[in-house]
Amino acid sequence: MLDREKVLRSLFTNAIEDTIETLPYTIQVFQDPLYDLKKTVTNDLDFLLGAFFAQVLLFYSVYCSNNKDIKPTIEESQQFHYELFSKAEEYKTMIRELMVTNNT
To answer: What is the pTM of this model?
Structure first.
């Protein structure tokens, strides 16, 4: 049987990696002038960072719910949330770079 911490870590890492993989698409959709989100969203980068965090949390919760043998405790979830949010600047830099790439 796999170590509980290793399983949770793997699910969390997969959630981040899968979100990063879909990030170019998310940026492309967000920046599409057809939707005219510029009227509503005043800071593109912060908006996309929030979308990134939301998607990681969604993927992680789905992955955990699909794994019937494991459910993270409140403390475990708090630890992963802290790890995610403590890297906000790193993710923001990555998003900024992808935004530039998508605009060229």
So the answer is: 0.87
